[in-house]
Amino acid sequence: MSSSLPKNHKRLTLILVCGVLFMFGFCYMLVPLYELVCKKEGLNGRSVKSATALDPKMRVDKSRVIKVFFTSTLHGPLKFRFVPLQRYVEVHPGETKLIYFFAENQTGHEITVQAIPSITPNDAARFLKKTECFCFTQQYFFKKEKADMPVYFFVDPAVSKDIKEITLSYTLFDASGFEKKQEHSTKGRIDL
Amino acid sequence: MNHDIAHNNEISHDDDHHGPETGFKRWLFTTNHKDIGTLYLTLSCIMFFVAGTMALIIRVELFEPGRVILNPEFFNQMTTMHGLIMVFGVIMPAMAGLANWLIPMMIGSPDMALPRLNNWSFWLLPFAFSLLGSTLFMSGPAPDFGWTFYAPLSTTYGPKSTDFFIFSIHLMGASSIMAALNIVVTIFNMRAPGMTWTKLPIFVWTWLITAFLLLAVMPVLAGCVTMMLMDRHFHTSFFNAAGGGDPILFQHVFWFFGHPEVYILILPGFGVISEVIPTFSRKPLFGYMSMVYASCMIAILGFVVWMHHMFTTGAPYEAQLFFMYATMLVAVPTGIKVFNWVATIFKGSITFETPMLFALGFLVMFTLGGFSGLMLALVPSDYQYRDSYFVVAHFHYVLVSGSLFTIITAVYYWLPKWTGQMYSERLGQIHFWLSVIGMNVTFLPMHFLGLAGMPRRIPDYALQFTDFNQICTIGAFIFGFAQLILLYIVLKSCFSKSKPTATSQVWEGAKGLEWTLPSPVPYHTFETAPVIQ
Asked: Within a 13 Å sphere around the CA of B344, how many CA atoms are in the beta-carbon half?
């Protein structure tokens, strides 16, 4: 059939098909692009998914106090106890704090979980930084295992003066269906 | 245009040995653009009554608070199916049908450039919609996550039938891409000698722009549902936070397709109106070039406004501002179009035949829908209107009295040309007035319901919304049953055995190559290209 087509039909069709294939690829390109923009802008907890190095030149701004609240949610029917040990802490911008989240595996079997952070308000999200967190990796739990899981964080002094409160929220997901990123990570955990 | 040469095409086909096959085979194997156009329009018509019935079921459920006839699960399936079928099964195939029928006749070409591909792009659709419709008869629920199928509703929590939905979207996408490809190649390569870009009828222009939009965004939709499929079955996590993905990403990908899609639904309609209004005003279209530029502008802007569907998802302020301004900018080219139509009517010798009535109805009510769109574009007010019946009112004003009215306009306008039979003007007028009244009684109160706080996609509502909802339901039944008149008119014209009652000119003021052909149009036209001066 195609041999009977005039040449200019073939050429134009080919160009358009290439365009279509490009757009299909572009759709998948949106995934890393989105990842990049979110990380840059500190959206959707993307900026706090990996560790920030402490800047030695950073000064503690004693003139301001920011209340950082902690909340936690379990995703779906996951049988876990997962709560912050403190409702909130008060920090000066630039000051590093350590807080713990308590987690207990009540599922009755061993399981890998993953905590996903989210920060509100949006304007503050980019400035809450973590040097260490249980959410950076998948967490492995034995049957009935209990543990306190650490978060080292600080609020960058560059944060706007309007920010008085920040909420750091974690959602705990069952990650057993997903590719294992590493074996039995329990780094920094205090087993109880 | 040179009428003499065009009329040479009237040579009879007595000794024609390559006419249509007979019976069912004619439709299955046809590569004739007119046959395929008819097939598209027939499918669209059937789907229109199917999805319309679903709309009436929804309206019955909403007649009173509490449970009336449906359980909430089935209500969700009805709203989802109604939306999906109306968008992908009614408006898009109808526009493609018009394109198939009209573009070759308007540009003086014997057929579409790739006729076999044309056959394939149509015949994918019945299968796509059987696949989608079959989910209603399965033991589990049919797709119930709304026509926007947001993750995780359609991934983690999607019913089993979601996979059928995904594949039917793939088929529809493939069909649309091939149809668009065909249209672009036809318009670029098959124009009659002398049919320069600046002489191209506006309907052809708008369809060319629409075809490019389709080529650009249907692959994105295909990619989007493929990601869903992978998330559901292959342990990827594009949209699942547990595995490092993000459900918000779904909305970005979906609306990157979804916003240009709404211009795909309306742009060919703009083309139809730009053909009809000059005919019945007996004046050439005001501002031809500005119409073309405005259409291009709308299409380009369509790619940079998608986040106005997502203002409340925690988008950064800068993004909210940018997308608010970009969205409001769409009102400029749209305003140019409305201005040009009004300027065309101004001081014209107007007559009010049914196509003109529908075109004028479109002009007024589409503009209203545009204004409520502007209200939704404003970030602060959008937070209030979001997910309320105000949004439902808005998009029905632009889709029902927008896209659908333009399709009805086109059917009344070109039906005498296609079938050779003049429709009954009296019935047409009754159909118009019942449609306009029904449409406004149905959707105008929804603005007030939305402003008062009634949420969308809810089978039950607070008592104070009852009165307005009952008005909406009554209007919906008027509108729905009024469409049976259209069905009667169309069927009567198509199956009439009497001698053709329409002249080849049909409308006194009509201009364009298709009106140089006899009515009804012969099976093959413009086998020798007309020469346009």
From this structure: 28
**B21: DSSP letter:** P
pLDDT in tens, B401-420: 999 999 999 999 999 999 99
Amino acid occupying residue B186: T
Closest CA to B251 of B311, B210, B301, B325: B311
What homologous superfamily does CATH list for B42-516?
Cytochrome c oxidase-like, subunit I domain (1.20.210.10)
Residues in B closer than 8 angstroms to A178, CB to CB, are 235, 237, 242-244
Q: Where are the alpha helices (DSSP H) in B315-424?
A: 317-329, 331-345, 354-377, 379-385, 389-398, 405-419
Do residues B198 and B236 lie in contact, with contact meaning Cβ atoms separated by under 8 Å? no
Looking at the structure, tell me whether residues A184 and A154 fall in a common domain.
yes
Q: What is the mean pLDDT of each run of 10 residues along chain B (533 residues)?
A: 43 53 87 96 97 97 93 95 97 97 96 95 97 94 94 91 96 97 96 93 97 97 96 89 85 96 96 97 96 96 95 86 95 96 96 97 96 95 94 97 96 96 95 97 97 94 96 97 97 92 92 93 92 80
pLDDT at site B13: 43
Q: Answer yes or no: is pLDDT of A21 > 80.
A: yes
Complex confidence, ipTM:
0.88
pLDDT digits (tens, 9 = 90+) for B291-309: 999 999 999 999 999 999 9
Q: How distant is the alpha carbon of residue A36 from its chain centre?
A: 13
Domain residue spans of chain B: 42-516
Average pLDDT, chain A: 84
> In this complex, do B185 and A9 lie within 8 Å of one another by their Cβ atoms?
yes
What are φ and ψ of residue A105, in 5° steps?
-80, 110
Say how far apart CA B67 and CA B347 lie, in whole Å. 54
Quick one: CA torsion of B406, B412, B415, B416, rounded to 10 degrees? Answer: -140
* Helix then strand then coil, % of chain A, to nearest 5: 25, 35, 40
Q: Which residues, numbered 458 to 487 in chain B, qualify as contacts with chain A under a Cβ-Cβ cut-off of 8 Å?
A: none
Q: A97 with A21, same domain?
A: no
Question: Do A9 and A63 lie in a common domain?
Answer: no
Judged by CB atoms closer than 8 Å, whether chains meet at B242 and A28 is answered as no
Taking only the tens place, the pLDDT of each residue in A27-43 is 999 999 998 888 777 66
Q: Which of B189, B230, B317 to mutate to test the interface with A (most CBs of A within 10 A)?
A: B189
- The strands making up A66-74's β-sheet, listed across from edge to edge, are A88-91, A66-74, A165-174, A111-120, A139-141
Total H helices, total E strands in chain B: 18, 0
Question: Which of B189, B219, B238 is opposite residue A23, by nearest beta carbon?
Answer: B219
Pair (A37, A51) in one structural domain = no
As a whole number of angstroms, the distance between CA B487 and CA B473 comes to: 22
The residues on A that touch B, with CB distances below 8 Å, are: 1, 5-6, 8-9, 12-13, 16-17, 19-21, 23-24, 26-28, 30-31, 34, 38, 41, 43-44, 46, 75-76, 114, 116, 122-123, 171, 173-175, 177-179
Range of the domain at A78: 46-191
CB contacts of B218 in chain A (<8 Å) are 20
Q: How many CB pairs under 8 A join A and B?
A: 99
- Looking at the fold, whether A28 and A112 belong to one and the same domain comes out as no
Residue A6 has a pLDDT of 74
**Which tens digit of pLDDT belongs to each residue from A35-73?**
888 877 766 666 666 667 777 777 888 888 999 999 998
Q: Write out the catalytic residue numbers of B.
A: 82, 111, 147, 175-176, 259, 261, 263, 274, 308-309, 334, 337, 456
Chain A contact set for B316 (CB, 8 A) = 41, 43, 122
Report whether B206 contacts B270 (CB < 8 A). Answer: yes
